[in-house]
Amino acid sequence: MPEGPSLVLLREAAERFRGHIVREVSGNSRQDLARMRGREVLGVRTWGKHFLLEFDDFSMRIHLMMFGSWLIDERKPVLPRVSLRFDNGELNFYACSVKFVEQPLDEVYDWRADVMSDQWDPRLARRKLKALPDMLACDALLDQQIFSGVGNIIKNEVLFRIRVHPATRIGDLPSRKLGQLIAQAREYSFDFLAWKRIYELRRHWLVHTRGTCPVCGGPIRKVYMGRTNRRTFFCTHCQKNYSAEQAPAR
């Protein structure tokens, strides 16, 4: 699933269509795609994993889901979910969710929750986390209302960076570690973006899909954990489970 930094790259590439008219539209989406024909793109925005094209009285929202993709001025040999043609090129999306947002985007999205946004608010993230003391750290990082744009790769790498076991409950994290989790959710996302720009992202993975811990040399465990049941990679030696320390003696 494309994560927030990848959507930023899409937004940057699609910015060329701002101010241009949709000349033709097609695709196999069940949405009324024809309503975009003849309309001017007023804004190109992202919120976490949502890509947004803004028109004067509605917006098109693209969610790339698990296997979605996009191409500019190119096409795959399959019918796109939605294809938009402009005077200066075309934008094609595949295997994605397409929806229309009827309200103004500022009424729908809280940009303070987007880890890639200039409006990101770490204090708001801390307040939300404090209200969820029983949530596992691995689930908290994937909660899009707290860390919009964070995906599974970022989750695994952030928890390793701060040496926290993914099964630690948020309420058991020391205040310093909670602050590190919040800070690294954003910092690693921008590192992710920088590495992806130069096609070096995988080279920098420390635990995600890895077999050996780069710090202690021990094995990396892979489990499906938490309410999200997503693949979780971690080192049992280097990443501390603060909740295990709080468990009563038997």
TrEMBL record:
Keyword annotations of the record: DNA damage, DNA repair, DNA-binding, Endonuclease, Glycosidase, Hydrolase, Lyase, Metal-binding, Multifunctional enzyme, Nuclease, Zinc, Zinc-finger
Pfam families according to UniProt: Fapy_DNA_glyco, H2TH
Reaction equations catalysed: Hydrolysis of DNA containing ring-opened 7-methylguanine residues, releasing 2,6-diamino-4-hydroxy-5-(N-methyl)formamidopyrimidine
GO molecular function: endonuclease activity
Domain FPG-type: 206-240
Residue ranges occupied by any Formamidopyrimidine-DNA glycosylase catalytic domain in the UniProt entry: 2-101
Xref: SMART domains: Fapy_DNA_glyco (SM00898), H2TH (SM01232)
InterPro entries: FPG_cat (IPR012319), FPG_N (IPR035937), H2TH_FPG (IPR015886), Ribosomal_uS13-like_H2TH (IPR010979), Znf_DNA_glyclase/AP_lyase (IPR000214)
UniProt family annotation: Belongs to the FPG family.
Record's protein name: Endonuclease
Organism from which the protein derives: Stenotrophomonas nitritireducens
